[in-house]
Amino acid sequence: MLTKVITISTILSLTLSANANEDITPYVVGGVDSKTLELPWQVYIEIDKNGSRYACGGTLITDTWVVTAAHCLNENDLRDSFTAVKASQVTVYSGGIDRSNSGNQSSNSLSKLIVHPGYSEVTNTDDIALLQLSAPAASPAQAIKLMDNGLQIDADIEFKAGIGNNLVLSGWGRTSTDGQQSTDILQKSAVTGISDDSCAITWRWAGREANYICANAFNRGSCNGDSGGPLIWQDKNAISDRDLGYRLAGVVSFGHADQCAKNNTPDVYTEVSTYRKWLVDTIELSDSYQAPDPLFTQDIFEVSSEPMEEKSGGGLGYSLLLLLTGLWLYRRS
């Protein structure tokens, strides 16, 4: 089985035969255009595999370190085989919301790439990785603080209580539920956290709840190209702080294969609080970790609840499926 991925070079060639005016590139289903400087922690990642470029998202957690999904960095297409790409194959773009050539993103090379040692292609567990930039990301990019276990308890209480739209997802992944529509502008969408118990029942797993955060919303969610990108939660006790209480809670990992943003099946994100110690300890092997002290000024939770209209046209179909715990699912890369 193959991980569903966005191959930019293939997309470009198929676009010409499908619709000359339809640019098929990656974004979030049911999202809205983000504002300039609204999500300064978000980065766009391109991985070069023998001349083909694959797209994922990522999050700055210091000015030189990025968190992303481990499965984004697989050199192999085989589901049961993982070999990490080389750092030289990866470029990280930061500081802008337009991923097209006309955008103002800064290009960053890597000095190091580290995949979690427990990552499993078969079970999707430990789907997290770190990228070290060769130099600090240029302004206006800013890092965001990691969720810790104490705040995760607060978030879990919200998830169990069914509080709506308490998480924000963002990315350049595909936007329609059939995975055929897109834009070059970074999209964001509010989604609702799902309790661990409910998610375990839906996905028919047990004993791995601490590895994941689950979330969904009506006709809104992650899609191909969003993998590795951020899921943000707000600490309500820190709203008046410089960083407005924003915390990186999850990393986009996988969802149901029938369609993106499937209403009765939550998307799944790697739970950052579970891996916070690994992230900090790994960074400190190369550098001293210091939590960022960013200044955020925009309310990212101001998101329209109405999903974007799905437009017809532009044909790129997918049938690459991934099996996990008895259900078909796909990874959002």
Automatic annotation (TrEMBL):
Keywords: Disulfide bond, Hydrolase, Protease, Serine protease, Signal. GO terms for biological process: proteolysis. InterPro entries: Peptidase_S1_PA, Peptidase_S1_PA_chymotrypsin, Peptidase_S1A, Ser/Thr_Proteases_Immune/Dev, Trypsin_dom, TRYPSIN_HIS, TRYPSIN_SER. Residues 28-284 form the Peptidase S1 domain. Pfam families: Trypsin. It comes from the Bacteria. SMART domains: Tryp_SPc. Residues 1-20 form the signal peptide. The keyword Ribonucleoprotein does not apply. SUPFAM superfamilies: Trypsin-like serine proteases. GO terms for molecular function: serine-type endopeptidase activity. This is Serine protease.
